[in-house]
Amino acid sequence: METELSRIGISLPKSLLDRFDEIITARGYSSRSEGIRDAIRNYITYYRWMSDVHGERQGVITMIYDHDQRGLLPVLTDIQHEFREIVQATLHSHVTQNRCLEVVLLHGDGTQLKALAEKLMSQKGVESVKLTTISLDE
Ligand code: NI
After folding, report:
1. Ligand 1 center to residue 40 CA distance, Å?
2. How far is the CA of 100 from the centre of ligand 1 (A)?
3. Contact indicator for 20, 35 with CB cutoff of 8 Å
4. What letter would DSSP give residue 87?
5. CA of residue 51 to ligand 1 center, whole Å
6. Which tops the pLDDT comparison, 92 or 53?
7. What's CA 52's distance to the chain center, in Å?
8. pTM, 2 dp
9. pLDDT, tens digit, for every residue of 7-61?
10. N or C: which end of the chain has fewer CB within 10 A?
């Protein structure tokens, strides 16, 4: 049981916290702490699931990012060039004036697919990155 509690202090952009608060209110969480605990559990589950991605795979990355983030577009292009051996195609959709949706089709070793997803995810201005894969091994 998670009985022993630790306290942490975190700094967040106000807009991110506002969006988070909207969601926890809509979902009926009793407190912000409860919502954050749930989010951290989901993060851990997602990361563990990502850790299981290995062997030859076909995959898709779905990514949302801020078009207005200075310097982000060439960085994202450079990263995709760096991983060109696993990137088969990219589909770009301009969602709003400043938000872009990009779908990247991948084929290659699972660890490489994961490395690309993690590199994209760590860029400032990238809102979300989801990696979905299927195994070709069986
Ligand atoms: Ni766009």
Report:
1. 30
2. 4
3. yes
4. E
5. 30
6. 92
7. 16
8. 0.71
9. 999 999 999 999 999 999 998 988 899 999 999 998 888 777 777 778 899 999 9
10. N
